[in-house]
Design goal:
The chain is about 20% helix and about 30% strand. By secondary structure, the chain is α+β, with helices and mostly antiparallel strands. A hairpin with a 2-residue loop joins strand 4 and strand 5. It is globular and about 45 Å long. It is built from three helices and eight strands. A five-stranded antiparallel beta sheet has the order 1-2-3-6-7, with helices on both faces. Strands 4-5-8 form a three-stranded antiparallel beta sheet.
């Protein structure tokens, strides 16, 4: 296992449509393991294979604090959405930025797991947002294309008082 380089906005691969995974291979398993390690190392809650330069329809998500929600989605298909949620999103491929994006509040997704078994997952809120965000990556769509309002800096600014102490 190892971390991989995360491709950033402007890299042409991020605009390409990813290809379906036909079978689990040692290379695909190594990719998934590396994706989790890369995502955790970068303090992300989701990562698509295309973000590490691999055009495969795979993404990983974990919106928990302790890593207990680690989920792999292979060949995902969002089959139902309901409701609306607004919120700021960031992306490991667009470092230092965030913007308001409207997403479904509730999502039903069908995908394959690491054993290539089909599963259906229903989820809400942040997990639903992360699934939609990562699924967009598989079709070459970055969240910045869906931002309403300005793209903001996500860097934490120090107060004047803290700067004086430094």
């Amino acid at each position: 296992m190892g971390t991989r380089n995360i491709r950033e906005m402007g890299d042409p691969i991020l605009k390409k449509k990813s290809k379906e995974v036909k079978e689990m291979t040692p290379r695909i398993q190594a990719l998934i393991d590396d994706m989790f390690e890369t995502m955790y190392e970068a303090n992300g809650c989701g990562l698509a294979a295309v973000q590490v330069g691999v055009l495969k329809r795979i993404f990983v998500v974990d919106v928990t604090e302790d890593g207990s929600g680690a989920t792999v989605f292979i060949n995902p298909e969002i089959i139902e959405t309901e409701g609306v949620q607004d919120g700021n999103e960031g992306c490991l491929s667009v470092p230092g930025k965030k913007g308001a994006v409207q997403r479904p509040k509730h999502v039903v997704v069908k995908a394959l797991d690491e054993e290539m078994n089909e599963f259906i997952l229903e989820t809400d809120d942040l997990f639903a947002r992360a699934i939609c965000h990562e699924n967009d990556h598989l079709d070459g769509i970055l969240y910045v294309e869906k931002v309403h309002g300005p793209l903001l800096s996500s860097e934490v600014e120090e107060s004047d008082e803290e700067e004086e102490e430094a």
